[in-house]
Amino acid sequence: MYHDVYLETPHESGLQNAGSQKYKVRLCDFEKQVKAVVDHCRAKEIPLSRVMFTFDDGGSSFSKFIAPILDVHGLKGYFFVSTHYLDTDGFMTRDEVANLHHNGHIIGTHSHTHPANLSKCDEKTIEQEWEKSVTCLQEIIQDQVVYASLPGGYISESIIKQLSSCGIHKVFTSIPTTRQEAIAGMTFIGRYPVTCSMNERHVINIFLKHSYVRCLKSIKWHILTVVKSLLGDNYLRIRSEILSKM
Ligand SMILES: [Zn+2]
Question: Where is the NodB homology domain positioned along the sequence (predicted)?
């Protein structure tokens, strides 16, 4: 699970809240990581079609840097777009989204406005977040949108219900697992986040069963889940206070 890739500064592309910065990867690192994955798969005879590179939020780097690198290696990207930000500074234009689709990449929804915690929104808001985004993307790509990724990884019964009514088939979570779950007629797929401190060896480590990167991400996720449930509504406020002081 990637977010943005940048050439000079993490502020070039995508969402700019304090929590998003660690998910932005330098272009030269991303290039090395993709090449390392391709080399690893060749060496281990893993078909490249089994590797899923996903990208969240809809930043301008999707079309500017990421897709051209994936294209060189014949890889398909899974690009998840928060549609409210299209055609604004640091995000893709509608034409760029259409081009990604026409070049064989997957376009999916990542909600409309990317609420801080979608699971805390009321039923009507959750419905509109998915409905607006899916309708907007379908108009742009002139095709069905059947993929979604969860903003912030938040999930609830309402979110599942509304995704299903929007015609979504596959939902990418932020849970670091290779297990897939069938819920309400949809497939839920886990992802391992790539952060700015990771190099290509760490990324390759994600491919290895029982590897330390997988274990570490799994432990972190479980701890975070406990912290979130203990802090409840205060979690996002405390997190952003801590991050703003870093
Ligand atoms: Zn996001």
Answer: 49-246
| Residue spans of alpha helices (H) in 45-120 | 61, 67-72, 94-102
How many angstroms is it from 121 CA to the middle of ligand 1?
16
Please write the tens of the pLDDT for every residue from 9-62.
999 999 998 889 999 999 999 999 999 999 999 999 999 999 999 999 999 999
Say how many Å lie between the CA of residue 152 and the centre of ligand 1.
5
Residues measured by CB to lie within 5 Å of ligand 1, the ion: 56-57, 151
Tell which wins on pLDDT, 231 or 115: 115
- Asked if 161 contacts 185 with a C-beta cutoff of 8 angstroms, the reply is no
Q: Ligand 1: distance of its center to the CA of 114 in Å? A: 6
* CA 42 to centroid of ligand 1, rounded, Å: 31
Question: Phi, psi at residue 189, to the nearest 5°?
Answer: -120, 130
